[in-house]
Amino acid sequence: MGQVITFLDAHCECTEGWLEPLLARIVLDRKTVVCPIIDVISDETFEYVTASDQTWGGFNWKLNFRWYRVPAREMQRRNHDRTAPLRTPTMAGGLFSIDRDYFYEIGSYDEGMDIWGGENLEMSFRIWQCGGILEIAPCSHVGHVFRDKSPYTFPGGVANIVLKNAARVAEVWLDEWKEFYYQMSPGARKASAGDVSERKELRERLKCKSFRWYLENIYPESQMPLDYYFLGEIRNVETGNCLDTMGRKSNEKIGSSYCHGLGGNQVFAYTKRHQVMSDDNCLDASNALGPVNLVRCHGMGGNQEWVYDEEDKTIKHVNSGNCLTRPTQDDPSTPLLRPCKYTKGQQWLMQSKFKWQAQHDNRISDDR
């Protein structure tokens, strides 16, 4: 029986020399779990497209797995050697190698999960918090057919299954951040996580570290609220309306609407990097007079750097020197960027502390 288990989805194509880089890392440390770079195979033409070696695995406020650009910090740790193994906060799942004994020592898979979704984040958190290392080996490439729709059937609906699995992750591994997750994804609280007592006992038995430790040491670039001044709704003094993503995607305009107090699209973080952030998108203005768009956060200031003045209540765009301004009557749902005149239309309140932050405010601000 082999000493290493390698998981691959059925719809994969392995390139020459794909396995050796994975095994080589496990030989050096049996607690290292290694993933290949996942190349793209078209589901229509089977064309093979090499993926970037400059991305790693992360996740957003709703615990959806995402690929993000590798930060400078990790590049420096690797001495800018793009062939060196990359320490990744999370894995995509389905393609990795692990020492067989170690796989069972740390709890294999959570058998309380159903069908699809969430298992990759659960295993990623477990590996890091319980003393392991999760890597991507840039010299290992495996192609994967990415389909435009799921081939699986989900009894009770896909949302229920995925949310149940995510709720299990939150209950066992996220500590106080599970309450933040439930505020961002209310459906997950309604989707019963089921009995997680065995997984909590596993975590205790393995003496695993906290989710705060994970965010501070493994994934300080995470969008999860940790390093920030404020989390909650941002309300305009003159209109009484709140900034609102309106459910829009990256590279679309920020919106404004009636303050509903229900969180979701009206929850913004004002971070210590001077970002105004909603999930993994930040307010961004590439021109002095806007528009103000939601753009994937890059953490490097520039067009995404804003300063909130608690006295005059302005949100000033550092690059242009202009201020975030209430919408006009012609377009009442689109905030503007205009020269600062310190009128009520340019005053914004960051006062309504989000319930989750209020419960943990001291702990979060004091620890950083």
UniProtKB/TrEMBL annotation:
Residues 228-351 form the Ricin B lectin domain. Gene3D superfamilies: 2.80.10.50, Spore Coat Polysaccharide Biosynthesis Protein SpsA, Chain A. This is Polypeptide N-acetylgalactosaminyltransferase. Its EC number is 2.4.1.-. It comes from the Eukaryota. Keywords: Disulfide bond, Glycoprotein, Glycosyltransferase, Golgi apparatus, Lectin, Manganese, Membrane, Metal-binding, Signal-anchor, Transferase, Transmembrane, Transmembrane helix. It catalyses: L-threonyl-[protein] + UDP-N-acetyl-alpha-D-galactosamine = a 3-O-[N-acetyl-alpha-D-galactosaminyl]-L-threonyl-[protein] + UDP + H(+); L-seryl-[protein] + UDP-N-acetyl-alpha-D-galactosamine = a 3-O-[N-acetyl-alpha-D-galactosaminyl]-L-seryl-[protein] + UDP + H(+). GO terms for cellular component: Golgi membrane. It holds the Pfam family Glycos_transf_2. It is an enzyme of class 2 (transferase).
